[in-house]
Amino acid sequence: MLSKRLLGTVYVVQSEVEMIMIKDRLIKTCLAVIPDEQSHYAISPEIAMTSSFYSKSYEAYVAASKDEFNNYVYTRGSNPTTHKLEVLLAELEGAQRCKVFASGMGAISATLQSYVMNGSHIVVVNSIYSTAMKFIKSLEKFGVSHTVVMSVDTQEIVSAIQDNTDVIYLESPSSQKFEIVDLKAIADIAKSRQITTMIDNTWATPMFQRPLESGIDLILHSCSKYIGGHSDIVAGAVLGTTEGVGKVEQNGYLMMGSTCSPMNSFLAIRGIRTLPIRMEKHNSNVKAVIDALKDDPRIEKIYHPYIQQAERSEKYLDGYGSLLAITFTDKDTTKLQTFINTLETFLIGVSWGGYESMVLPGYKFDNLETMKARGLDITHTRLFIGLLEAQMTITDLKQALSIAYD
Ligand SMILES: *Cc1c(COP(=O)(O)O)cnc(C)c1O
Question: What is the distance between the alpha carbons of residues 285 and 388, in angstroms, rounded to a whole number?
């Protein structure tokens, strides 16, 4: 019954249920936003812009306040628009439950602190998002220690596990070098030792990687990136089993109060409706850009799963996110400055996942030692390939390379 229209990989089925095709799975994306009489058949979901919800009677209030998950009481606990987003994200990741937060860091910090206590140990795999790393370091003052394993080698990761390890925290592909961890191997070992595994899946999105299928326990997202998709919101999410996410809800959500605005939840739902189409374009754009740069003598190295770790890429990814890093053959930082300033279609700045291409140099004139300590070359530069036609992006990169390095 896939008849009404076919738009990229987004299907709208006759029954008014919109669906997204992931690999061979049809996902009912509009489970969450089926128009009905109550909403006057509005195609776009309503925004429940309210802090509180009233009850029709004393008894109804008492019942609702005892079960905030299934009743709307106060928006810091749950909100209908945010709940729609949670249902939608859970569908996409194949998770039982999702909780949406005011930011990716809101989700990461609440989740981590829900799973550790005084005396716990965290294994951090490779280079993770820098603020997440800072948060893990800040837990030391509560008696939570950590070990950072600067490798994606399974044996090295396993050898960092201690008797008091409660959490293995990873990003795959990792920040900075975009290396892939053998998720299934790590999940299996962690399970056998009652360790909770957490992955930040922001880079791949559920379009291209669904780590729950490999046995990872909890998935984290910054919805500020691809999920929002338009550089206009900050939001985050945690996904997993009802029990696994319930623990975060009880310990890290209600109490820490990183609540997503209903307006931002609405914008994230809007973003998800074009997620498959956008991800397809990011995937083809990033491959075209890498193909055009990989034999360029001015580029020393490209860090991206399209050209590294073929076996693991094949095993875990259904497509490629368009965030990558490059280093230059010439180490002169004046030339690097010229390159960055000469790009015309890339904006200089943090964050990514929207329409615009972004460039972010690692070198900040005084941080060479920190870069070395993180195993980064002085010319390490992050590129985000946006939605502009690949050929225009390539032309721009080549002109900046010529002006800076020839
Ligand atoms: C941006 C980002 C975060 C943090 O998310 P915020 O929404 O900015 O708090 C975490 N992980 C990764 C991989 C990110 O890119």
Answer: 8
